[in-house]
């Protein structure tokens, strides 16, 4: 999912009265995985 797609999904869900839970599950070593983190950063850049 790209940042733009994430923002569009968020807007669509909120417009219908819903909530979107964004979750980053840690890797077995306790670090965040890079793909969701990059996506969420892109969502933040696209939103602002």
Order of helices and strands: HH
Range of helix content: 55-70%
Q: Biggest sheet, in brief? A: none
Average pLDDT over all residues: 80
The total domain count is 1
Characterize the quaternary organization of these chains. single chain
Summarize the structure.
The chain has 48 residues and is mainly alpha-helical. The chain contains two helices and no strands. The longest helix has 14 residues.
Describe the structure.
It is a single chain. The chain is mostly helical. It has one domain (3-47). The chain has helices at residues 3-15, 34-47.
List the helices and strands and how they pair.
Elements: H1 3-15, H2 34-47
Helix pairs in contact: 1-2
Pick out its properties.
single chain; 56% helix; 0% strand; flat; Glyco_hydro_29_N; Alpha-L-fucosidase; GH
């Amino acid at each position: 999912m790209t940042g733009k797609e994430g923002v569009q999904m968020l807007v669509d869900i909120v417009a219908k009265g819903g909530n979107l839970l964004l979750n980053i599950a840690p890797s077995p070593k306790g670090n965040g995985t890079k793909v969701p983190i990059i996506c969420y950063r892109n969502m933040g850049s696209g939103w602002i």
